[in-house]
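EI: anyone free to look at a 282-residue chain?
SC: sure, send it
EI:
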Amino acid sequence: MEKIANKVFGGERPLFEIHNTELDHVRITFGESGVKECSNIVCRNCYFEGKYPLWHVKGSDIRNCYFAPGSRSAIWYSDDMHMEDCVINGPKFFREMKNLSLKNVTINDADETFWGIDCLKLENVVLHDGTYPFMHCRNVEVDGLVSDSKYVFQYSRDIVIRNAKIDTKDSFWEVDNVTVYDSELNGEFLGWHSRGLRLVRCHISGEQPLCYAKDLVLEDCTFDAECDRAFEYSTVQADIRGHIKSIKNPMSGRITADSIGEVIIDENIKKPADCVVSIREK
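SC: here you go
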């Protein structure tokens, strides 16, 4: 493998069509498309400033690198990539890719990041700020995620998440086949219009969670004291530990909790209107 070390590149496409190459302590300065149409690329201790630095790269390993705010839209159409121990300060990263994995990565401007990714694995990843990360992703595995970005995981499917703390609103809208284990989900309108959303040992907070959901499952979950009007127009099987403030017009299924503040069933409930709501026997 060829090695390029301790060099600075700028301008338009300075490393176009390189293959089987390691970049060590390389700096890509202001310009566009620093590493493009390349394959089998290793980046170590590199600094990326310019726009679109890694596009159409097939096979890459990126470690201990920094992406400056100017490196927006940095990594698109690049399959088979692993990134580890990196910091990203630019928006709109990772689009239309296959087989992407990140470990110990912090993204400080997560605006419109992870769009259209197939086979995504995250381990100990932090997302900060921005809107709509994880749009239209599929086949996703997460273990360790901290995020305060808005509108996470919309229109995505086939996802398993473990050990996450997600502070947001409108999360998990229109998702299919998603399971979340041992996580904290904070924010309004969680899981609306979801299909096959399963929450296991999760803590939920925010107004009007889990409405319009189909085939919703909760196992050993807890709710914040102010979490109200849950499950409206949902089909649900829920085992709730502790207290839930209010439940409103669930369509069908069964909901069991240790205690319930109120159950609202009014003239607007939708058929089959046969959900069984009960207090767990002590």
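EI: The longest strand covers residues 235-248.
SC: 👍
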